[in-house]
Each structure stands twice: as C-alpha cells, then as structure tokens.
Design goal:
Blueprint (H helix, E strand, L loop, with lengths): L4 E10 L2 E8 L2 E6 L2 H4 L5 E6 L3 E5 L1 E6 L17 H11 L5 H17 L2 E10 L6 H12 L5 E8 L9 H13 L3 E4 L9 H18 L2 E6 L9 H10 L6 E5 L8 H14 L1 E5 L1 H7 L15 H6 L4 E3 L16 H11 L4 H7 L2 H7 L14 E5 L3 H7 L4 E5 L2 E2 L2
Length: about 400
C-alpha cells in the first residue's frame, strides 16, 4: 500500500477541548489525541503545533467591493452619506485604469485571505460611468489570487435600468455576464425617480435576466432607513413566480425599522422564498442614521428575527477603506466584533455568521472541525473564539484545502 502524506495540527483548541486534527488530501480525516504517535510509520507526517491557538472553520466574506478597495484617501466623501459616496465614485471612475484597480483588488483579496476568509463574494460596478474596466480588473485579480481564495463576482448593475434610459445599462450588464461575472446584481431601491411600481419592475427585470442566464442573484436591497422602502418584498414575490436560482438580498436595513410583528411576517416570507440575507454592519453603521441626533438607529437588519424564522443569514465587511466606508481591515473578526456590540449576538453566533453562515448563503458546503469536512480552517492565537473576536490578533494560520497559506 502506498504511503499517505498527513498533516497533523497538534494541540489546537476546538471549543472547550484541546485536540489534534489530521488532514489528508485536503480533508479532515481524524480529530483526537496523540495522533502523531498513532500515525502509521509508513506515512509521511508533517506536524504544526497549534498550542495556544483556537481552530475554527475558515471565514467567508459574502459581500465586498474589491473594485473600490483602498480609495478612501483619493476619493473623499465629505458628506458621509450613501448618495455622496455614489456621486464621488461616479466622478472618479476615469482616474483609475485596469492595472490600478487590479492591484488594489489583489491587495484586498490577500488581506481577506490572510485574515482567514478564503471564500469571497465581491460586487463589481457595471455602470455607464465606469464601463467594464472595473470588472476586467477584478477578473484579473481573481486569476492572480486563485491560490489563496475562491472569488465569486456579482455584476452590480448601475441605474437607471428601466425604459429607454436603461437600454445602455442593460446592455452593459449583458456584456458583464458574457465576460465572466457569476451572478446578477443591482440596486432596485436606487432606481432614479422610480415609483414603488418602478422599483418592483427593476427587481422583476433583474430576476428575469438572472433566469435567462441561468445564474444566481444578489441584490443590494433597501439600503435605507426609510420604512416605506421594502423592495425585499418585491424580491420575495419575483422569486415566488418560478425563479429557481440562488437569491441573496444584501443590507435590508429598512427591515430594522418595521414594527416587530411586521418584521416577523417579512422574515417568514423571506424564509419561505429561500432568500439568503447578508448583514453589513460596518458600512451601514457608517452611512445610515446621520440625519438623526436622538435615538440614532443601528442600521443593521434584524438578525435575530431572521434567524428565528429560518432564514440563511451571513455578515460581511462590505467596503474596505473607500468612499462608502473609510475604515475596514478586511477582517471577519472585525465584522464579528461589530455584530456582538451592535446586533447583540453572542461571539459564537457572530463567528458563525462570518463563516458557515456565509457558506450557506453562497451555496457552499459546510465546514467543521470534524472528520470528513474540507480542511478550510483558520487558527488564531487565542484561548477561545470570544477572545479571538475581542482581541483580533494578527497571529493567524490559514489553511485552504489543507494547505497552509504563505
């Protein structure tokens, strides 16, 4: 019998216990004690000592914008509001070529991966102002980073989408899908001068385009504290008409300002439609609620109610130091910390939302520190996940398909 090459992660803290974890061919084959001594003498065994490290499933970044990363210094947004950020980017597109955007995207992917997020979904602007260069750049960055992360691209359709004014925008979206974007995206709540009926039509159009292409859909949805804006229900209705692909609604901020009973009704409808929700605490806390000086809302979708209804929920970084958010470390532990403080979830639930919650929303298989699981793992120097989230130490070891990243 041919010998096997086995990697043993020794003395790792998993939950409340310290164990050894054996990995072969990219999968976990055993979890126990003294696995080095128990290894077959004929096998090639490599050992990594993880004493003092908590070991957990690698994180997932379910929603970011790699094309905009690290623009905060050169594309300011003095107003600090969503509209100001959109206007700032519209005026700045022509200043950045494919090479520059790809360089920044590679830097962001690398930072996410080193911090433990080896699966990334990014939205990339597909607009008349910016054209297809941002997408070309991120496709280039994805190819350059295949060894460290799996990057999925959403073509973020600009606006307007409807009618004669949207002809060129719709054509650009089609070209973006032809170029290699994986999912259809858009922002129905931002459709210029659209009525409620018009916003519903945008949602239906984007769902229809995704259906024609046979791909999934991830829409920026209700990124506002306006209680009258509920495009999420339009998405529920559009999906119920027969769309069979995976569907994600990101942000869903206005759901947080609905009456409690209404939140539960909508959460039940979202669960029934099979729509995943991505909460984006840092960017929404930064952009939303600026017009209010008393009882300032937290601008985070109601995570607990969604989870209670059985909705697949994830949480992500969103913007990394750009006009929409001047901070951000591309670190899932930063996102988890914000969830604990601002969304009142426990540290364990917070980490679930930035790891396997993301896998569920993205339609990926579960990862766990148990035999049979893919060996996509992160080890953080800490005694517990709570401490890891609290301290966010830079001392991390990341394993993708059982191979440690450099």
């Amino acid at each position: 019998m041919a010998s096997m090459s086995i990697l043993i992660l020794r003395h790792a803290t998993v939950g409340d216990t310290v164990v050894d974890v054996a990995i072969t061919d990219g999968a976990i084959t055993d979890v126990g004690h003294d696995l080095v001594a128990a290894a077959d003498a004929a096998d090639a065994v490599d050992v990594i000592d993880l004493t003092g490290h908590v070991l957990a499933p690698a994180a997932v970044e379910p929603h970011t914008h790699l094309d905009k990363a690290f623009l905060a210094n050169v594309v300011p947004n003095p107003s600090g509001v969503l509209g100001g950020a959109i206007a700032a980017m519209r005026e700045a597109y022509e200043r950045f070529d494919v090479t520059d955007t790809a360089r920044r995207a590679v830097a962001a992917i690398t930072m996410f991966a080193r911090n433990g997020a080896t699966t990334i979904r990014t939205h990339v602007d597909v607009t008349e102002a910016g054209g297809l260069e941002p997408l070309r750049a991120v496709l280039e960055a994805r190819d350059a980073c295949r060894a460290v992360a799996d990057v999925e691209i959403v073509a973020l359709c600009g606006f307007p989408v409807l009618g004669p004014l949207g002809v060129d925008q719709r054509a650009l979206l089609g070209e973006a899908m032809d170029m290699g974007a994986d999912l259809v995206g858009g922002c129905p709540h931002l459709e210029q001068e659209a009525t409620e009926h018009g916003r519903r039509a945008v949602t239906e159009m984007l769902v229809g385009i995704a259906a024609e292409r046979g791909v999934g859909l991830d829409l920026h949805t209700d990124e506002t504290l306006d209680p009258e804006m509920l495009c999420l229900l339009d998405l529920v209705d559009a999906v119920a008409n027969g769309f069979s692909g995976p569907v994600t609604a990101s942000h869903c901020v206005s759901l947080s300002v609905q009456e409690h009973r209404r939140q539960r009704e909508i959460a039940d409808a979202v669960a029934g439609a099979g729509i995943g929700i991505v909460a984006l605490p840092q960017t929404n806390l930064y952009l939303q609620g600026r017009a209010t000086s008393q009882l300032v809302p937290r601008a985070i979708t109601p995570i607990a109610i969604l989870l209670q209804a059985g909705v697949a929920v994830a949480a992500g970084q969103d913007n990394v130091q750009d006009p929409f958010n001047p901070i951000g470390r591309a670190d899932p532990l930063e996102t988890a910390s914000l969830l604990v403080a601002a969304a009142h979830v426990s540290p364990d639930v917070a980490y679930e939302l930035v790891s396997d919650g993301g896998r569920q929303v993205l339609g990926r298989g579960r990862v766990a520190v148990e035999p049979g699981s893919p060996a996509d793992l992160v080890a953080v120097r800490a005694s517990s996940m709570r401490e890891a989230i609290a301290m966010a130490p830079g001392d991390r070891r990341v394993f993708r398909h059982g191979v440690e990243l450099d």
